Structure formats: C-alpha cells, structure tokens
Amino acid sequence: MKPHNLAFISAIALLLPAWSFAQSSVDTNGDGVLTLEEVQIVMPEIDTDSFAAMDANGDGTLDADEISVAQGAGLLPPSNG
C-alpha cells in the first residue's frame, strides 16, 4: 500500500467515532452535524460558552472534526460505535 493511501485510511479511521456520534440519535434532524440543542439532549450541562469553545469554525454546529477534538478533550462522550 502506498504511504499516501495509508495516511488517508488512517485519517478516516480517526474520524469514524466522531462521525458515528454525529450520525447517532443525538443528531435529531439527521444533517450530520450537531447543534447546541442536540448536544444538550445528551449533556444538558453544556452551555453556550462551552459549545462555542468546541465550535472551532464558529458556524453554530459541531462537525465530525470538531466532535472528534471535543471527544479527545473529554468535553463530549466517546462514541459507542
């Protein structure tokens, strides 16, 4: 396997837990990203400021990358697959 293919596969594998979390029942509208309201269903203690700290690009939602970072930092629960 070529090194660039291995890097791509590794990157995808790292994002799968976060993507799974975003695609779970937490994502109530099924758009693949999480809003503050969706996150608060599972973690009501998350407030606007803590959500904004996880929302790196400031678009008001958490995408797979942001979820992964938040999980790694212990701010969101790990995906259960």
Question: Keywords for this structure?
Answer:
mainly alpha, Recoverin, domain 1, 4 helices, 81 residues
State the distance separating the first and last CA atoms. 27 Å
Q: Low-confidence spans: pLDDT under 50, at least 5 residues?
A: 4-19
What is the count of β-strands?
0
| Helical content (DSSP H or I, runs of 4+) | 40-55%
Q: Tally the structural domains.
A: 1
Say what oligomer this is: single chain
What would you report as the Rg, rounded to the nearest angstrom?
13 Å
Could you explain the architecture of this structure?
The chain is mainly alpha-helical and 81 residues long. The protein has a single domain (3-72), classed as Recoverin, domain 1. Helices cover 54% and strands 0% of the residues. It contains 4 helices and no strands. The protein has helices spanning 3-23, 36-42, 48-54, 64-72. The longest helix has 21 residues, at 3-23. The radius of gyration is 13 Å and the shape is globular. It starts with a helix and ends in a 9-residue tail after the last helix. The relative contact order is 0.19.
